[in-house]
Write a structure and sequence with these properties.
The structure holds three protein chains of three kinds. Chain A is mainly alpha-helical. Chain A has eleven helices and no strands. By secondary structure, chain C is an alpha/beta fold. Chain C folds into two domains: about 180 residues, P-loop containing nucleotide triphosphate hydrolases (Rossmann fold, 3-Layer(aba) Sandwich), CATH 3.40.50.300; about 70 residues, no CATH class. In chain C, the strands form two sheets. Chain C has a six-stranded mixed beta sheet with strand order 6-7-8-3-9-10, with helices on both faces. Chain C has a four-stranded antiparallel beta sheet with strand order 2-1-4-5, with helices on one face. In chain C, strand 4 and strand 5 form a beta hairpin. In chain C, helix 6 packs parallel to helix 7 and helix 8 crosses helix 9. In chain C, about 45% of the residues are buried. Classes of the chains: A mainly alpha, B mainly alpha, C alpha/beta. Chains in contact: A-B, A-C, B-C. At the A-B interface, helix 1, helix 5, helix 6, helix 9 and helix 10 of A face helix 1, helix 4, helix 5, helix 8 and helix 9 of B.
Chain lengths: ~250, ~270, ~290
């Protein structure tokens, strides 16, 4: 036990103050440098210009943000439902899990992003293809998390369940599923990020609507301030989704 | 006398049971997934033929294989830039990420100031910054190098830092009692303890590097497997798309496998 | 080393405890000439802040330990005995009072003071021998001259043939033996041990006690040994300091007058059990003392 040694907890406050100061100084330096050197202003626009753009085009930006956020959220939730269901189904049988688990791990490692154009071939350039690709991106971490969680219930718990004569589904709901929740949640965390990535890449290549499209479009016109504005909104969406996903 | 033969029979029976259970375990772990994969491919082939699915929508596995062989030259030519960008970006990320991780661990000030920023950056969907790198670095290979390095930097930096922080506090107390200098402790104790963490970060980083490369090629390139896939999609050459995807997945798996192999080799030494 | 044989007074109340503490020092020890490995604590207190609350870990402890003595600090969990040891080691500084080792005030850790913790804290990638030589590796000193010593030590603790094994191939008891060798390789004048055998099973623990006492018999260092096991304290030490519950105060200072060298059979003798009984009484008074 380290409780006998001095625990320096005043550092948390110090850390917070220091990092905020650091960030504040960075932002200030960024603003000053960008204003001084107009050449660099196109490369990294000053924060004031970014907020200016957000204010001026907030209607357009919010509209695109809504599209991105909605597609991403819907895709994520569909992935959650499908992922948990399929994961649970596979976990039911030892043989089936043994057969499919390596494949799922492989699917997790390969760059699924490369399949995005395939979805366009299949579903055209529109919401369906983007949605389907988002679901596809977010599905695997959830399914793997559910499968791992359900298959790695501690051995003594399993013995306890065997000792009772409760029916399978009851054991599942009362014991195995709660034990699987930490794994499922870590899968959800990964899936939220993957859903957003899938959505953004989908918007890059369908080039129709959404913040990803805005970013690509603005970049090709060298309007970096607009790019940054869209990125800021994307961060907000990502942050919100993370919080939702974690609270779920 | 009979008890001796009984014992012998019992022992051979036990051995047989042991081999049987080992056989079943191998069956489960290896043969079953492979067989499932093969079965899936056969089902796919049959479905395309039986349901008359047009090759443009879903080519059969045999057609994909044929496409890989027929376009081997083309695929090889585009494989090179993709693999190169991925590897170079990853190596850059390794160098920078480990350096920053060590710097953060060595200096309290650096840690308090910089690390929260690195952590906060995880909320930024870095993929979205790909077009920005094109604005900054142009359409050439440099922007893809930079983006691939950028996107794989963070898992490594975070892994290195948390690995260096995770040294057992009793071990650190021991080092303090010996009046060891912080530099020595960092080099001889904290860095070796951090290596398993670093490998976990490297595995994430290599997958991110591949993704970053492909996305970079989607939006800006005239070469590379990502470009090839997008180009083939625009011409509805689905068999070429799948062929390129197969090659790309092979690249991803090989790179990941290399890191996993290195992890296995070193972990026996450093995890103890 | 104490060799007297007179009966200890029975402890019935706190004032009896006070009498025990105030016993005159053993005759024949020159107080003016402080030997190199004396440990002296003068009115030492330690207070720290944890999670917003002020904790009085140690309160006004004064004690003197002579060179070559084996002293145990016995007390319930959380009574501050580890904190006390860390102050002697120089890893903590007292809030009040002075800690002196070898006649000099402790201002920080010293290479010449050996420390051993509850967890062996061996480096998993080093062999047993390299782990023993770790103090030299980590301070940049040459280990070449000490290799032989390390091998001798490992042989002494019964690990002959295990020099090239990694910690993952060693049991808990073996790892603690390696840690013991590591603490001794620097030829410290003072050895501080913080419940080193608490994490081991009872049988291994008894083995380790025998190993330690045999080793100590040979090297005769000053040892301060923190434990919450009464039998362990009684078996190993010349003197047992009993601490109260937090805030840790020195309640008793009991000399153990069992002859040395001590063999495991000592644990069966009536004298040993009587001493354990006395210690047990003191501990229960310590518990009651905190509540009352």
């Amino acid at each position: 036990m380290m409780t006998d040694y001095v625990i320096r907890s005043q550092n948390a406050v110090r850390r917070g103050v220091l990092s905020i100061t650091f960030v504040g100084l960075l932002v200030l330096a960024w603003e000053v440098a960008a204003r001084r050197n107009t050449g660099a202003a196109t490369a990294i626009p000053p924060p004031s210009e970014i907020s200016d753009i957000i204010a001026r085009h907030h209607g357009l930006l919010l509209q695109q943000a809504a599209s991105t956020g909605l597609e991403c959220a819907v895709g994520f939730f569909v992935a959650v439902v499908c992922g948990i269901l399929l994961g649970a189904l596979i976990a039911y049988s030892t043989s089936v899990s043994a057969a499919l688990y390596p494949h799922m791990v492989v699917f997790q490692i390969i760059p699924k992003i490369a399949l995005a154009p395939l979805f366009i071939v299949w579903l055209g350039v529109g919401t369906q293809s983007r949605l389907a690709f988002t679901v596809f991106s977010a599905f695997f971490p959830i399914a793997i998390g559910t499968l791992t969680g359900l298959r790695t219930t501690p051995a003594n718990v399993i013995d306890l369940c065997r000792a009772t004569v409760a029916p399978h589904w009851r054991v599942f709901m009362a014991v195995r599923f709660p034990f699987a929740l930490p794994h499922i949640f870590s899968g959800l965390k990964v899936a939220v990020t993957m859903a957003l990535i899938g959505e953004i890449v989908g918007e890059f290549i369908t080039a129709q609507i959404g913040l990803g499209y805005i970013i690509k479009f603005a970049a090709s016109n060298m309007e970096t301030a607009l790019v940054f504005a869209a990125v800021v909104l994307l961060c907000a969406i990502g942050f919100q989704h993370r919080r939702l996903g974690l609270r779920h | 006398m009979s008890s001796a033969t009984d014992r012998l029979e019992f022992r051979s029976g036990a051995v047989r049971t042991l081999w049987f259970s080992v056989g079943v375990a191998t069956l489960r772990a290896v043969v079953l997934p492979v067989a499932t994969g093969v079965a899936a491919l056969i089902a796919w082939e049959w479905a395309v033929w039986a349901l008359h699915i047009p090759q443009v929508v879903l080519p059969s596995p045999s057609l994909v294989v044929h496409s890989v062989v027929a376009n081997a030259g083309l695929l090889g030519a585009h494989l090179v830039p993709t693999a190169m960008v991925t590897v170079v970006g990853f190596v850059l990320a390794m160098l920078l990420g480990t350096a920053i991780g060590i710097a953060i661990a060595a200096s309290r000030l650096a840690r308090d100031m910089v690390y929260p920023c690195v952590l906060a950056f995880q909320f930024v969907p870095k993929i979205a910054l790909a077009p920005l790198f094109i604005v900054w670095f142009g359409m050439g290979l440099e922007s893809r190098f930079a983006f691939s390095a950028f996107i794989s930097f963070f898992p490594i930096a975070v892994a290195m830092t948390s690995g260096l922080e995770a040294t057992d506090r009793r071990t650190l107390a021991l080092c303090r009692s010996l009046n060891a200098t912080p530099r020595r402790v960092l080099l001889h104790v904290r860095i070796p303890f951090a290596i398993p963490f670093l490998f976990a970060g490297m595995k994430i980083a290599i997958t991110m590097a591949v993704i970053g490369t492909v996305v970079g090629e989607f939006i800006s390139s005239r070469s590379g497997l990502g470009y090839l896939i997008l180009n083939a999609a625009s011409r509805m050459q689905t068999d070429l798309i799948l062929a390129a995807i197969v090659v790309l997945c092979a690249v991803g798996l090989v790179l990941y496998g290399l890191i996993e192999a290195a992890d296995q080799i070193t972990s026996r030494r450093f995890r103890g | 080393m104490a060799t007297g044989g007179h009966q200890q007074p029975r402890i019935r109340k706190i004032s009896d405890l006070m009498n025990v503490v105030q016993r005159p020092k053993l005759a024949g020890v020159a107080r003016s000439a402080k030997a190199k490995c004396d440990i002296a604590l003068h009115d030492v207190s330690k207070t720290y802040v944890a999670d917003g609350a002020t904790v009085d870990a140690v309160e006004r402890i004064s004690v003197e330990i002579r060179s070559g003595e084996f002293v145990s600090i016995l007390g319930p969990s959380g009574c501050g005995k580890s904190t006390l040891l860390m102050m002697v080691a120089g890893l903590e500084t007292p809030t009040l009072g002075v800690v002196e080792v070898g006649g000099r005030k402790m201002t920080g850790p010293r290479f010449e003071i050996g420390v051993m913790f509850q967890d062996a804290t061996l480096l998993p990638w080093k062999t047993a021998l390299d782990n023993v030589l770790f103090p030299f590796a980590i301070t940049g000193k040459s280990a070449v001259d000490h290799r032989k010593d390390a091998q001798v030590l490992l042989r002494r603790v019964g690990l002959d043939g295990f020099e090239t094994k990694r910690p993952s191939h060693l049991s808990g008891g073996m790892r603690q033996r390696v840690a013991l060798c590591r603490a001794l390789i620097t030829r410290p004048e003072v050895l501080l041990m913080d419940e080193p055998f608490s994490a081991l099973d009872a049988i291994t623990r008894d083995e380790m006690n025998v190993v330690l006492t045999n080793l100590w018999q040979e090297f005769q260092k000053t040892v301060v040994f923190v434990t919450h096991s009464i039998r362990e304290a009684a078996f190993l030490s010349d003197r047992v300091l009993v601490m109260s519950q937090r805030p840790g105060r020195l309640l008793a200072d009991l000399p153990i007058d069992i002859t040395r060298p001590r063999h495991p059979a000592v644990g069966e003798t009536p004298r040993f059990n009587e001493i354990c009984g006395q210690l047990r009484q003191m501990i229960s008074i310590a518990h009651g003392h905190a509540a009352g």
